[in-house]
Amino acid sequence: MSVLSILEFPDPRLRLHAAPVQVFDAQLKKLGADMLETMYAANGVGLAAIQVNVQQRVLVADMSEERNQPLVLVNAEVVERHGSQVYQEGCLSFPGIYANVTRALGVTVTALDLDGKALRLELEGPLAVCIQHEIDHLDGKMFVDYLSPLKRAMLLKRLDKQRRQAASA
Ligand code: NI
Predict the structure, then answer these.
(1) According to the model, what pLDDT value does residue 106 have?
(2) What per-residue confidence (pLDDT) applies to 54?
(3) How far is the CA of 25 from the centre of ligand 1 (A)?
(4) Which of 11, 20, 114, 128 has the greatest CB tally within 10 Å of its CB?
């Protein structure tokens, strides 16, 4: 397994759209394992293949306290949604930046596992937020896209400032 490098905003490759996976081979399993290792190494709760410059519909997540419930979803789609919740989100492509985003409270997700077996998940709360966030990445969408222009500008300014401070530290 290897830790992959994560693209950071405003890398234009984060706006690419991922294609559905059609081949369930050893290479796909390696991608899933590498993405999990990359997510854990970065202390993240989710990661989409787009963020590691792979334009395939693969995402990984683990919202458990113990970091021992890895989820790898291939070709995941939200097929039903209900309610709404506001949750403070971060993103490995925006280190150190957090913002409240409104999303569905609960979602039904269909996906395939790494062997191509069909899954149907009923998710609520933080894990529902996480999976919606990661599926967005696969369509070139990021959490800051949900913010007002003013709020977004403030956050991106903070991101710039943090990067300058990190560079001069
Ligand atoms: Ni993200």
Answers:
(1) 98
(2) 98
(3) 26
(4) 128
- pTM for this prediction: 0.97
Residue 47 lies in domain: 12-168
| Selection from 73, 61, 48 nearest residue 137 by Cα | 48
Q: How far apart are CA 63 and CA 133, in angstroms?
A: 13
The Å distance, Cα 130 to ligand 1 centre, comes to 8
Q: What is the pLDDT at residue 169?
A: 81
Show which residues are catalytic.
134
**Structural domain count, the chain:** 1
Query: H helices of 52-142, where?
Result: 126-138
The reported pLDDT for the residue numbered 105 is 98
Residue 14 CA to ligand 1 center (angstroms) comes to 10
Question: Is there a domain that residue 3 lies in?
Answer: no
Residue 131 domain flag: yes
Q: What span, in angstroms and rounded, lies between the C-alpha atoms of 24 and 29? A: 8
Give the Å distance between the CA of 22 and the centre of ligand 1. Answer: 24
CATH of the domain at 140: 3.90.45.10
Residue type, 112: L
Query: Kindly report the CA angle at 11 between 10 and 15, in degrees rounded to 5?
Result: 95
Dihedral (CA of 141, 132, 102, 90) sign: negative
